[in-house]
Amino acid sequence: MIKYKPKLSLCVVYLFVFYLAAVTSDLESDRRALVVLRKSVRGRTLLWNMSAPSPCDWHGVHCDAGRVTALRLPGAGLFGSLPIGGIGNLTELQTLSLRFNSALSGPIPSDFSNLVLLRYLYLQGNAFSGEIPSFLFTLPNVIRINLGENKFSGRIPDNVNSATRLVTLYLERNQLTGPIPEITLPLQQFNVSSNQLDGSIPSSLSSWPSTAFEGNTLCGKPLNLCVGGPAPEPGPGPNPPPEKKDSDKLSTGAIVGIVIGCVVGLLVLLLILFCLCRKRKKKEENGQARNVEAPVAPPATAAAIPKERAAVVPPVKATSSESGVVSKDLIFFVKTFGEFDLDGLLKASAEVLGKGTVGSSYKASFDHGLIVAVKRLRDVVVPEKEFRERLQVLGSMSHPNLVTLIAYYFSRDEKLLVFEYMSRGSLSAILHGNKGNGRTPLNWETRVGVALGAARAIKFLHSRDATTSHGNIKSSNVLLSESYEAKVSDYGLAPIISSTSAPNRIDGYRAPEVTDARKISQKADVYSFGVLILELLTGKSPTHQQLNEEGVDLPRWVQSVTDQQSPSEVLDPELTRYQPEGNENIIRLLKIGMSCTAQYPDSRPSMADVTRLIEEVSHSSGSSPNPISD
Ligand SMILES: *[C@@H]1O[C@H](CO)[C@@H](O)[C@H](O)[C@H]1NC(C)=O
Ligand SMILES: *[C@@H]1O[C@H](CO)[C@@H](O)[C@H](O)[C@H]1NC(C)=O
Ligand SMILES: *[C@@H]1O[C@H](CO)[C@@H](O)[C@H](O)[C@H]1NC(C)=O
To answer: Where would one find the signal peptide in this protein (predicted)?
Structure first.
């Protein structure tokens, strides 16, 4: 035994040395691979320090345990094609993001098949071409594949189902042809719109919204029924059905199928309705009045029939007969918007505007023409007395850039806020709503005006006392009037709403130091406002799932791009397109936004400073009218 001991330890030492050698040589090979990549792909971002021994500090390169595991160079202005022996040799790679470089071209290299640990592949927004290699779907770990907005052609590989962990498949805006294969994976994100696909949509994909398929010559649910062509396969099958000669018989079969389907569907619907009614009756009998949530009519049902005449909040009626409530009607702060009572409000025709973090919003239109917005708060955590006190304070605030709180209603089961209605909806919807569709992109004058209006409103809130903050600044809480004047909504509601109902996921606006969504400091407001400015100028949503997934938030993304290249690179193309020479003021506003998103609260400017700076930018934009472009 004793004899063997030294041998054993020697062995361990040898192993250790071998291990070290293996690790360094692997990192060395990762480094060589990145150098190969750099030789083919050009762009200012790849000014990597070649004298540094390890590639791990290079911009966009992330290492774990001495190997390159992520390469993220989004929106970095890269061009050229991907070489063999480059990324394909990064054998420990898990995340590859080259999205929105717009000029990366050529095919996906064949040696990507070595990337067996790859989980996230983001190549969208480039000019990649060639066929989508089928080996992508046999990479055992792949979770998200986004190849949208490229020039990929050929058919969608029919082995998609081999990627058993896949949840995202985005192939929109390419030049793909042929049919869509049957995909039986439980995908969470899917889009093949704007290609040249044809044939019928496999039944396994028919529950996706039609926008996921538009811009092709596809047919079948959710698009129009296939007329005269082969009917969609009823069950999931790996291959598209072979074409049949006898198409007449088949379409008869399809019609019979549809009729049967309709009848069965109707029966199921009736059955569900019946069950629901019974359940509801039972619940009412059980007298479950303690539940804060309304027992019936989830907003979703109203959303499905938005223009229908429907009571705003049916459950209030059921509870308005209860006694012991201080006031059974609306409490008004301003009457200049017209007179109405709770009954009238409930009878007004309602349309769902949206579901926010504090509750759902409705547009209520009275017969005599008045329109108001109603917010139905959920998860109110403060007792009635405090609720009424806080609302009294909110109702007393008046500023041209704050959405006016007209009235509120409080009962045990229902808390409603009545606001002035803003016809152009939220900044978020305007910035990120369906592009195309005749939507006019916001020009610079409007954007700087919106920034200034919102800044003034927040400055006003902050000026009341050092503890008053907005608490929930984001683009969906900045509303626009008919003349695109910005008005801020949802101010001061954070402290009365349960913090668990506020988003604990990364929402993209939250300052890094915030731990309790109910306690937002003024400096945290400044951070959120900074994110809003960056959103306004880049056109990118801070809540964008992929930004977050890659661990990059909007401020860090803007910072990383502007570190390497001209700040103009981050700007919304819709903004710069009509702004030929005059980017200077835009960049000034961008810098203001960036200073607001400083990591440490003390490094952020005050809202008064921010407002003054934006006023200067706005004035200097106004005093030097921009030359008319094109
Ligand atoms: C990439 O990997 C292949 C196969 O392992 C190897 O032959 C080649 O030399 C590697 N390329 C670089 C640049 O390391
Ligand atoms: C490049 O890396 C070397 C070695 O680590 C270092 O001495 C040098 O300062 C770096 N150069 C730059 C410009 O960062
Ligand atoms: C699919 O992509 C198109 C853009 O090509 C977009 O307009 C549409 O909303 C997307 N639909 C879904 C379901 O993602």
So the answer is: 1-25
Q: Is 53 in the pocket of ligand 1 (CB under 6 A)?
A: no
The DSSP secondary-structure symbol of 172 reads -
Q: Which amino acid residue places its CA nearest to atom 11 of ligand 1?
A: 85
- Residue 541: both structure tokens together: 């949503």
**Ligand in closest contact with the CA of 39:** 1
Distance from C-alpha of 297 to C-alpha of 308, rounded to nearest angstrom: 14
50 CA → ligand 2 middle, Å: 8
Bigger pLDDT: 215 vs 290:
215
Q: CATH number for the 425-630 domain, one of 2.30.30.40, 1.25.40.10, 1.10.10.10, 1.10.510.10?
A: 1.10.510.10
Give start and end residues of each alpha helix (H) in 350-483: 384-396, 427-432, 444-462
Question: From the CA of 28, which ligand is nearest?
Answer: 1
Look at 91 and 517; give whichever has higher pLDDT: 91
What 8-state DSSP symbol labels residue 537? Answer: H
Which ligand 3 atom sits closest to the C-alpha of 148? 5
Superfamily of domain 292-421: Phosphorylase Kinase; domain 1 (3.30.200.20)
Residue nearest to atom 10 of ligand 1 (CA): 85
Ligand 2 binding pocket includes 47 (Cβ within 6 Å): no
For residue 247, the surrounding DSSP H or E stretch is: helix 247-286
pLDDT digits (tens, 9 = 90+) for 420-437: 999 888 998 888 876 555
Adjacent-strand bridge partners of 170: 146, 191
- Residue 279 Cα distances to 284, 288, 294, 311, 325, angstroms: 9, 12, 14, 22, 28
Q: How many whole angstroms from 31 Cα to the centroid of ligand 2?
A: 16
Does the C-beta of 52 come closer than 6 Å to ligand 2? Answer: yes
Q: What is the pLDDT of residue 309?
A: 35
Judged by average pLDDT, the poorest of 339-348, 438-447, 477-486, 542-551 is: 542-551
Tell me how far the alpha carbon of residue 165 lies from the centroid of ligand 2, in angstroms: 41
Asked if omega into 241 is within 30° of 0 (cis), the reply is: no
Question: To 5 degrees, how large is the angle CA 216–CA 222–CA 224?
Answer: 65
